[in-house]
Each structure stands twice: as structure tokens, then as C-alpha cells.
Amino acid sequence: MSHFSTLRTKISDVAILQTSLRDLGISVKDDADVRGYNGQRVRADLVAVLDGEYDLGWSRNGDGTFDLIADLWGVAKKHNQTELINSINQKYAVNKTLSEVKQRGLQNANVKLVIQ
Fold first, then answer.
1. At residue 7, does pLDDT exceed 80?
2. Can you give the pTM of this predicted structure?
3. Which of 18, 49, 46 has its CA nearest to residue 31?
4. 54: closest CA among 66, 29, 72?
5. Residue 38 region by backbone torsions, left for phi larger than 0, else alpha for psi between -120 and 50, else beta
6. pLDDT, tens only, 22-49
7. Is 109 in a helix, a strand, or coil?
8. CB of 55 closer than 8 Å to CB of 70
9. Which CA distances in Å does 37 have to 18, 31, 70?
10. What is the largest CA-CA distance in the chain?
């Protein structure tokens, strides 16, 4: 029985996802195995190699978005999975926004987050 979970995401730009993971200090592999429980592995288009025995992976869907694939129980043994996934999503959103702004000619753009 597989311990891997698949979660839909809105991530669609693999280059920005790679940059975002590296910005967070996470090693990245292309077209690699996601490590899971008891040596189980599943192939993914992009893999975030985490400390420990478990990884996060992303596989492209037909619509261009990516699914997150992971043994979430295993990831949670060493990492706060909610914080980890949220930090990846936040970094991706910032980098995607900056990329879009720079394509429109604003080379010195900054992102300012206002929480009320």
C-alpha cells in the first residue's frame, strides 16, 4: 500500500518553483524519485530533497499545473509540513509576482506585504 498523497496546486511555472525552493535552501532534482515510507519511491518532474528520508515532489498535469506528491506522514516526522508547504507556496507567489512585473518592464520592483 502506498503512503504517498497527491495534492492539487496552482503552481504552473517549474522554473519559478525551482528558484523558490533554492531560495529556501532546499536542494532540487529534475525527473527524480520522491522518497517515501519503507524505501517506497514515486517518480516526479521536480523533487525537493529534504533532510531525512522523505521528499516533496511535483508532477505536471495535462492543464499545466503541478500536483504535490509526498508521504506527508514521513515528512511530518522531521518537518512541520504545514509551515514547509506554506513557505514554499509563499516564496513561489512572491517570485511569480516579481517575474510577471519584470516582464512588464518594472525592473526594480519590490513586494510589500500588508497584513491588517
1. yes
2. 0.86
3. 46
4. 72
5. left
6. 999 999 999 999 999 999 999 999 999 9
7. coil
8. yes
9. 24, 20, 10
10. 51
Q: What angle do CA 48, 50, 53 make, to 5 degrees?
A: 120
The residue behind cell 496546486 is 9
Residues ≥6 apart with Cβ < 8 Å to 85: 56, 68
Number of other residues whose CB lies within 10 A of the CB of residue 57 = 27
Q: Contact at 8 Å (CB) between 12 and 64?
A: yes
The residue type of 87 is S
pLDDT tens digits along 47-62: 999 999 999 999 999 9
Cell, residue 12: 504552473
| Residue 17 in grid coordinates | 518553483
Q: Which residue type occupies 9?
A: T
What is the grid cell recorded at 50? 529534504
Residue for grid cell 519503507: 38
Residue 79, amino acid: H
Q: Three-state SS string across 34-103, please?
A: EECHHHCEEEEEEEEECCCCCCEEEEECCCCCEEEEECHHHHHHHCCHHHHHHHHHHHHHHHHHHHHHHH
